[in-house]
Design goal:
It is a single chain. This protein is mainly α. 80% of the residues lie in helices and 0% in strands. The protein is built from eight helices and no strands.
Length: 244
């Protein structure tokens, strides 16, 4: 089996695993579950983490150039090897975007709605969960509820930054830095997509206007061609009458 074949087969199972991880992680962070419930959620998190570890090992084994793949995917190794980075595995949900891409087709508007809206929603939700996870128990924390975390994530990813909510821990600030850089990237995609769409619309309008302007000229040209043909026919008939 080739690595690409494996990825095609594993795409949906991995997306389902990521959704399970997302649900368990969100329930654990927002609900602040304790006791046996907390143990169950932790078991689910470790189980899904194990699935992604197996996925990493399979990709490494099936890679044509294992050394090259290993060096270019060190972040994957960090995510698998260090439990602290487990929330980053939620980024596996971006496989949903590739699935949606097949359904919306190749239109520019479809790609903009799918990738920009999907990526923005995913980043806001995951960023809010991550910062709430590390901030809600910290002394003098400003972000104590998921509502606060979601508001902070939205203002951060849009680069508005009101300053009413901000992380006070080192881990929270790392999450904030990642979200800021992601926000800049998303806004860049939005700007580029809108600019491309506007250029396309202008070109279409220009072509339509040019075609509309050419219509009267084409009509006059056709009329001239008809008149010339009539003149030629009359001249030919006159020559015939005079025996020329």
């Amino acid at each position: 089996m080739t690595q690409q074949r494996y990825r095609d087969l594993a795409e949906w199972p991995l997306m389902g695993t990521a959704l399970v991880f997302l649900a368990a992680y969100a329930w654990q962070v927002i609900g602040r579950v304790e006791g046996s419930g907390a143990d169950l959620l932790e078991a689910v998190l470790w189980l899904t983490w194990g699935v992604f570890a197996v996925d990493y090992a399979a990709n490494l084994w099936l890679a044509k150039d294992r050394r090259h793949w290993f060096l270019w995917n060190l972040h994957e190794l960090l995510i698998v090897a260090l439990p602290f980075f487990r929330p980053l595995r939620l980024l596996r949900l971006v496989t949903l975007l590739s699935v949606l891409h097949r359904t919306v087709g190749e239109t520019l508007r479809g790609r903009v709605v799918t990738y920009v809206a999907g990526a923005a929603a995913l980043l806001v939700f995951v960023g809010a969960l991550a910062v709430l996870d590390v901030e809600q128990s910290a002394p003098e924390a400003k972000i104590l509820t998921f509502g606060d975390a979601a508001w902070w994530a939205i203002t951060t990813i849009t680069t508005v930054g009101y300053g009413d909510m901000y992380p006070v821990t080192a881990a929270g600030r790392l999450v904030a830095a990642a979200l800021m850089m992601s926000g800049i990237a998303v806004l860049g995609v939005v700007t580029a997509s809108i600019a491309s769409w506007l250029v396309q619309r202008v070109e279409e309008s220009t072509e339509a206007a040019a075609e509309s302007a050419e219509e009267p000229l084409r009509a006059e040209l056709g009329q001239l061609v008809t008149e010339i043909a009539d003149l030629r026919r009359e001249i030919a008939e006159l020559k015939d009458r005079r025996g020329l």
